[in-house]
Automatic annotation (TrEMBL):
Keyword Iron: yes
Top-level taxon: Bacteria
Organism encoding this protein: Chitinophaga silvisoli
Pfam families assigned: Bac_globin
Name of the protein: Group III truncated hemoglobin
UniProt KW keywords: Heme, Iron, Metal-binding, Transport
Amino acid sequence: MLTDITTEEDIKLMVHTFYARVREDDTIGPIFNSRIKDWDTHLQKLCNFWSTLLLYTKTYEGDPMSVHRGMAIDTVHFNAWLSIFNKTIDDLFAGETAQAAKNRALKISAVMQHVVNRPA
């Protein structure tokens, strides 16, 4: 029986599982693997990001939109990212916060698609 996302350990499991899958994906893996040189630091930043969004820990500092602006990514890439994210959540968790994670990911994807391809 799956449980909901309630702890920092749950966030860590979610983020690490998700990005292990991303790194192996034929569509978006090459993009992530070519840009991220220090995966440990990146994963910690993403744990802080999702912990802030889902558990309200206020551990994330940064501007994810500006970091991604101008990257050569499109709807196909965002759809792959979202599909992997949703599958990861569904494989690991069930509950209100798990659903909130999927809802947030959908919103992030929509906003980021708009921001990424907009001139700086």
